[in-house]
Write a structure and sequence with these properties.
Shape: globular
Order of helices and strands: HHEEEHEEHEHHHEHEHEEHH
Largest sheet: 6 strands, mixed
Distance between the termini: 39 Å
Number of strands: 10
Helix content: 25-40%
Strand content: 15-25%
Structural class: alpha/beta
Bound molecules: adenosine-5'-diphosphate, magnesium ion
Radius of gyration: 19 Å
Number of helices: 11
């Protein structure tokens, strides 16, 4: 168990969450856009990790973000989730929620879920219990960890087990799952909180080919009902799920468009694909 997970679960009903209720507003995607980044710059000791980065993600879109190491992909996710404050630029969730004014907890509460590279699950609890804990940590629902599950709760957990292909492992201790299954469990835990936007940083790193294939199917099934931003180096995986692709380089967008267009862009080949 690590600090991040403990925080999620122990924060239920805290004063901080009350604040989150006041600070965040309803997500408004009436213009069809779930995330706007405009002119975002972030410097670390004078080095520009992000340099006037602008990006818009449509509601229900599955966006792939690629680019060489150090391009600023993770820093972009840090800005969206409130871990890093931009030096300049604006970041909006829907039309009205100014992400640069919210804490990371408030942003999570507003409906942005983030999957880090290393899975953060409760290794000594069963797969089912992990999903149960994630559901009960949902800040929108006031209940304690000891409240009994309703039939509806069980149905939700069962549906999620099915969705992330862990139905046969429901009673297994999470620590005994394969690497790929642990990643799916964490994605399931994020989904239990019904995020509107999911950020996934290198989700298939270390997965077997079979697991990577299943993950591609999962992401494709989530698009439409969720908005996803997927950062990955595995180009076979990207090609399977790609619609619109954004290429980051030196902190800004180098190219953006359909996979075929981006793949044949000489500038993209030069800085990334051609290596
Ligand atoms: P990517 O995820 O595309 O590989 P990152 O966003 O992790 O790139 O990093 C972009 C650049 O910013 C890199 O040069 C990295 O060394 C630098 N950087 C990232 N975070 C920090 C930090 N907290 N302090 C100093 N430099 C950082
Ligand atoms: Mg990174």
């Amino acid at each position: 168990m690590n600090d991040a997970t403990v925080n999620t679960v122990s924060g239920v009903g805290s004063a901080a969450m009350q604040m989150a209720h006041m600070a965040t507003r309803e997500l408004d995607t009436s213009h069809g856009v779930v995330l706007y980044l405009e002119g975002i710059s972030v410097s670390f000791d004078g080095f520009k990790a992000l340099n006037k980065l602008s990006l818009a993600i449509d509601a229900g879109e599955l966006r792939c973000v690629i680019g060489p190491n150090g391009a600023g992909k993770t820093t972009m996710m840090d800005v969206i989730t409130g871990r890093t404050r931009p030096d300049a630029g604006s970041a909006f969730f829907g039309q009205t929620i100014d992400l640069t004014k919210l804490t990371d907890a408030e942003i999570a509460h507003a409906g942005i879920g983030r999957k880090f590279q290393k899975p953060t699950i409760f290794e000594h609890h069963s797969v089912f219990e992990n999903l149960e804990l994630a559901m009960k940590a949902d800040k929108r629902v006031r209940r304690t960890l000891f409240a009994r599950l309703t039939a509806e709760d069980r149905d939700r957990i069962d549906a999620m087990l099915e969705r992330v292909r862990l139905k046969d492992s429901a009673r297994r201790e999470a620590g005994l799952l394969s690497h790929g299954q642990k990643q799916w469990l964490e994605i399931g835990m994020l989904l239990m909180q019904e995020p509107r936007l999911l950020l996934l940083d290198e989700p298939v790193a270390g997965m077997s080919d079979e697991e990577t294939e299943r993950t591609a199917e999962l992401f494709l099934s989530l698009a439409g009902s969720h908005s996803l931003v997927v950062v990955e180096h595995d180009m076979t995986f990207i090609e399977k799920i790609a619609r619109k692709v954004t290429v980051l380089h030196e902190g800004s967008v180098l190219a953006e468009g359909p996979m075929d267009e981006v793949r044949n862009d000489p500038r993209v080949i030069e800085v990334y694909l051609g290596r």
